[in-house]
Amino acid sequence: MTQNRHLVALFVVLGLLISATRVSGQQDGQFTQFMFNRLFYTPGFAGSEGGPCLSLIYRKQWIGLEGAPEAQMVSFNTPLFQQRVGLGINLYRTAIGITRNVTAEMAYSYRIPFGRGYFGVGLSGSIRYFTEDYGDERVKGTQDISLDSGVPIGLQSKYLPNFGAGLYYQGKDWYVGAGVPRLVEGNIDFGNGSDRPSTEIRHYYAMGGYRITLNNFLALHPQLLLKYVGDSPFDADLHVALEMKDQFHAGLTYRFGGDRDPGLGESIDIVLGFRIRQHFLLSVGYDIALSGIRDYQNGTFEALLRFCFGKGEASEIDNPRFFQ
């Protein structure tokens, strides 16, 4: 009965988060294994892994398609002061076409004991370094692009600071969170005299997960990531994983969206991994595209490595890592 009440509460909170956000066009990179990368979506997550943890992520999207998105990330977070404070760092690089983006982000979370878990209120600060290479040989036009004053010439770059905020709660068997990693809609346009310059659009995220213990050997983990950006279609990832003996996991994700109306969605994603004594995690994902781009690429590959260093400082509240 208690598990049922928690499950109802989870989806009620997620429903309220959905109604409070506005929709917009996706600019941030996406990760198949969002369940192992929650600091990317909300600074409130910092310190929630029970001890210091370091994660390495590599993602190659739409293999075989020239200029397709690619991302690398290093992420670290740790609890401090008897679990009451969390600190986190994200360093990541994304590339798509002639655009490169390097981001350094720091997160702080104040963690309040609540029930059998912690409620984290988080803030983050970031600086992003954007470059676009208009001298790339792939940039072509019907005439010499140097004749168009609206097109920049050569390598263009700029720095853009920002800040974000988020909330996160982790209980014994479930979690829920929400975040806006970049609140300021900064100008990222490199054009000359544009009437409508390109800007960073706010991305709103909400997530939740629940652990269902089937027996001493198996547990089922349904998890959900909701993504909203202004003037963009609804997007979400629904993931269900089966974990065996707290060591092996196998899961499927259905990613909504896509470019067909009506459509099959954006992708079906496979996630497989194993862990050793809660300290080491290796997990890989493979996305099978369902949208129109499926005819021009060979899927998406993502790999994640994580090292956790002990259980951290002692706490009176059980803070399991089964969702980590």
Summarize this entry quickly.
With 324 residues, this protein is mostly beta strands.
What does this structure look like?
The protein has a single domain, classed as Porin (Beta Barrel), CATH 2.40.160.40. Helix content is 6%, strand content 48%. It is built from one helix and 15 strands; from the N terminus they run H-E-E-E-E-E-E-E-E-E-E-E-E-E-E-E. It has one helix spanning 2-19; strands at 53-60, 70-80, 85-96, 99-114, 117-133, 155-170, 174-180, 203-210, 212-213, 218-229, 235-244, 248-255, 267-276, 280-289, 300-308. A 14-stranded antiparallel beta barrel has the order 1-2-3-4-5-6-7-8-10-11-12-13-14-15. It starts with a helix and ends in a 16-residue tail after the last strand. The model is unreliable at 1-25 and 312-322 (pLDDT under 50).
Features:
324 residues; 14-stranded antiparallel barrel; 15 strands; mainly beta; Porin
Query: Do you know the CATH topology?
Result: Porin
Radius of gyration: 20 Å
Order of helices and strands: HEEEEEEEEEEEEEEE
Spans of 5+ residues with little confidence (pLDDT < 50)? 1-25, 312-322
Please report which band the strand proportion falls in: under 5%, 5-15%, 15-25%, 25-35%, 35-45% or over 45%: over 45%
Strand order of the largest sheet: 1-2-3-4-5-6-7-8-10-11-12-13-14-15
Major beta sheet, specifics? 14 strands, antiparallel, barrel
Number of distinct helices: 1
- Which CATH C-level class is it? Mainly Beta
DSSP E strands, number: 15
Seen as an oligomer or otherwise, the chain set is single chain
Mean pLDDT level: 84
Looking at the overall shape, the CATH architecture is Beta Barrel
Q: Please identify the structural class as seen in this structure.
A: mainly beta
CATH superfamily: monomeric porin ompg
Helicity, as a percent range = under 10%
Termini gap: 25 Å
Anisotropy-based shape: globular
How many separate domains make up the residues?
1
